[in-house]
Amino acid sequence: MQTVSMFQAKTTLSKLVEAIESGQEKEIVISRHGIAVAKLVSIARQPLQQRIGVARGRFIVPDNIDESNEVIARMFEGNSV
Questions:
Q1: What is the pTM of this model?
Q2: Using an 8 Å Cβ cutoff, are 34 and 3 in contact?
Q3: Which residues, including other chains, have CB under 8 Å from residue 5's CB and lie 6 or more apart?
Q4: For residue 46, pLDDT beyond 80
Q5: Per the CB 3.0–4.6 Å rule, which of 29, 54, 65, 74 could disulfide with 79?
């Protein structure tokens, strides 16, 4: 674990992030006036999942789904139906 001052963190942020990304450092503590105030750590990478069509086949969209769009828009605008 490496500890750096706030000034050092501001001036070398790219290098600090690179050290975390590469695994060279597991965490970096940032201090202000000698007191630890923040920690720079890696975020666990989540595998990207395909999201388009995830509910395909679970419900039926009616043909008239857009029929009330104007009425709903007027309601959002505060106009009466």
A1: 0.55
A2: no
A3: 30, 31, 32
A4: no
A5: 74
